[in-house]
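Translate sequence into structure tokens.
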Amino acid sequence: MFFLEKLADFNDVINTFVWTKIGVWLLIASGIILTLCTKFFQVSHIKHWWKNTIGSLFDKKVIAHTKGKAISPFQALCTALAATIGTGNIAGVAAAIHIGGAGAVFWMWIAAFFGMMTNYSENILGIYYRRKNADGEWSGGAMYYIKDGLGKFKGCGGLASVLAVLFSIFAVLASFGIGCMGQVNKIVANITSAFDIKALSSVTVMGSGDSAVSLYSIIIGVIIMILAGLIILGGLKRIASFAEKVVPFMVIVFVIGSLIIIGTNFAHIGAAFKAIFVNAFKPIAALGGGVGYVISTVMTQGFKRGVFSNEAGLGSSVMVHSNSNVIEPVQQGMWGIFEVFADTMVVCTMTALVILTSGVYNLATGEISAASDAVLVGAAFDSVFAWGHIGSKFIAIAMFLFAFTTVLGWSHYGTKAWEYLFGTKSTVIFKIMHVVMVMFGAVLTSSLAWDISDTFNGLMMMPNLIGVLSLSGLVIKLTHNYVDRNIKHKKIEPMLSAFPEIQEAEKKRLTEENI
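Result follows.
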């Protein structure tokens, strides 16, 4: 107990430094810089990136399954969304509003707007610096563009190598925490609450009091572990195949359910948006403290929960986007823009409006009539679907789908980070460890794992953003090259890879594709 208390205190110090003192501001500054560098690409070329992402879903080149180790651009998106659309979209949004009030939603939007270009930049660098591993599978990610990109600057070779290793270590640890144990913990908590079976939940297997673990929790943990093992040990192809079927379904169903709640409470939509914009800058009584403190709290919660939700800036989703069979780096970058848009602007906004229009959050005072996290969202759904607590049950199922797919997506991130550190052949060890961690998540009762995971997210972000910002000039060149060739139709040499042999192979593939 003493050890856990000291660990919590130590983690709080690091977490505060990483997020509040540096991380949040570095994250937003990076998004602003990259937005300016690309001349507001997410706005100036909105028609183009929309057409080439969601508008291309009937294009066989985008959705067709590939024969080799690579996956389709759509599968890469779904796998990335599987990892990003998780508990952060429900519990994370609820927590942001619970702590920072309605105004936190505004700062989540701001973080997402600039985060679109951070994610875009990460993805194009991931594709540009990727290479084939020993199994013939594409490998890319922040560790590679840090090592090969930043490392080419004079006197930065050693620093780049260290930062690449640190990123990989933090990614592996984060995959165990936020990518596994934390997600499973939320699944178990919500299922045991919404679908309680007294004969199982009343039997204590270990612990006592608040730390007691029931037989019900153990059984759910075993079931999740078996399901996760069958998919994760099957490799990226199996993960991507599962993700492309489940992710669109779960997003559509959640959005429809949310629209029903919002539609039922239509009269409060205007007041909800007013509260979001006004409370972003004006303190409310429920938060307490001075104006400066409140605004800082609201902004921090919005930014922090925004990146927790869409992961733009962490360098995580790059590891699956780099597995796409896409040729053009900017093409996959545009999917990165859509990823953040779908995650935050759509799913998180739906969650926020459900909470703010349902009455569980007092728009005038900021007072909340329910507990934090997913319980708050469940209470909002119960306000309309009250019979038999169908609303809470719906949220429990949504949390299961959201969190389970996050476990699968993060298993690939951790695998790629492990591969960088220990080689391709040893990745099966990581996969087995990741599956075993599911059981730890099932019996976890403390929030410490979530807090530590939050810290590792921030620690991942640091080396990644250093790498992305140092290569912002390359991001500009790649963007201009793509725009000149594909929008302005200039006859110039394409920039497809940092490596001559891959550049030639991809150039040949691009020529064949355009014939």
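Note: The first helix runs from residue 2 to 37.
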